[in-house]
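User: Hi! I have a protein structure encoded as tokens and I'd like to know what sequence might fold into it. I'm fairly new to this, so please keep things simple.
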């Protein structure tokens, strides 16, 4: 039987397509303007919506990459994103596996304790005092260690682990496998879809973070991530003059806006690259359980 759409159905589909196209334009056009402005001569680009560059130039990006402070901030951002995400996934996934074990003494208390922390926290001042007492302030590790455990991600991973077939664990137990073998050889590989999802969430959070720099490393320029450098440049026009002096270049046709937009593009590109790379894991997660063999 062939279903024939009515005029009402076709009109509804058309309205949906138009709405989604409008949403697409609302998201893409501003970002496209930012990219094109950073690639254009400011004298030809000011006051216009740019769909293509006007007076193509890479001077803004050359200025960014010849400035030592900006290049170093990119290194700090990459280091904290990779290290922080890897440690979070490793520690949090082990914690998630531990709270799925019903035979662990006091496991019900620990489950409630972790959930409790989702609703209540000590606040900014106690957290700052704790990090200072641990000697983390003024160091790179203040970006990494406090986020090594994410309770929200732990619950996501726990739920996914509980959905795995119990027969896998039973067969491994019969062969003499212990918990370490079960986690690293069975549970961890099978949990790649949810681990990819939480890795993406954590990576984006680490890459975009700059508030913790204000709290703990505001007096340590060598530990500034790229987002904090961009934040400072957006706050003051003197940042542009400082970058010009440090880069030892004179680019008369550049403006502070060109430099800021070039830095903005650089902060977004890594996230745009990460999404397609992790997309295959999300698709794989959708197919788990749908194929029987």
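Assistant: Happy to help. Inverse folding works backwards from shape to sequence: for each of the 293 positions I chose a residue that suits the local structure. Here it is:
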């Amino acid at each position: 039987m062939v279903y024939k759409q009515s005029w009402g159905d076709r009109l509804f589909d058309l309205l949906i397509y138009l709405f989604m196209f409008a949403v697409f334009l609302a998201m893409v056009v501003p970002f496209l303007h930012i990219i094109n402005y950073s690639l254009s001569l400011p004298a030809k680009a000011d006051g216009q919506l740019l769909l293509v560059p006007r007076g193509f130039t890479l001077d803004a990006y050359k200025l960014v990459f010849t400035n030592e402070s900006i290049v170093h901030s990119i290194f700090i951002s990459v280091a904290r994103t990779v290290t922080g995400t890897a440690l979070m996934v490793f520690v949090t996934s082990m914690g998630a596996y531990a709270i799925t074990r019903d035979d662990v003494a006091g496991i019900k208390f620990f489950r409630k304790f972790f959930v409790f922390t989702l609703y209540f926290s000590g606040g900014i001042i106690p957290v700052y005092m704790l990090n200072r007492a641990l000697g983390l302030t003024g160091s790179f590790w203040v970006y990494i260690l406090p986020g090594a455990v994410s309770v929200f991600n732990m619950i996501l991973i726990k739920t996914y682990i509980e959905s795995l077939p119990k027969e896998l664990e039973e067969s491994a137990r019969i062969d003499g496998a212990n918990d370490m073998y079960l986690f690293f050889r069975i549970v961890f590989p099978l949990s790649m879809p949810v681990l990819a999802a939480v890795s993406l969430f954590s990576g984006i959070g680490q890459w975009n973070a700059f508030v913790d720099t204000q709290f703990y490393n505001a007096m340590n320029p060598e530990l500034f991530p790229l987002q904090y450098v961009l934040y400072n440049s957006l706050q003051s026009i003197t940042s542009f003059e400082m970058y010009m002096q440090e880069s030892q270049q004179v680019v008369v046709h550049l403006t502070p806006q060109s430099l800021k937009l070039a830095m903005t593009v650089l902060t977004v590109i890594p996230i745009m690259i990460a999404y397609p790379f992790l997309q295959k894991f999300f698709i794989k997660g959708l197919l788990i359980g749908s194929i029987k063999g």
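A useful reference point when you look it over: Residues 286-293 have pLDDT under 50 and may be disordered. Feel free to ask if any position seems puzzling.
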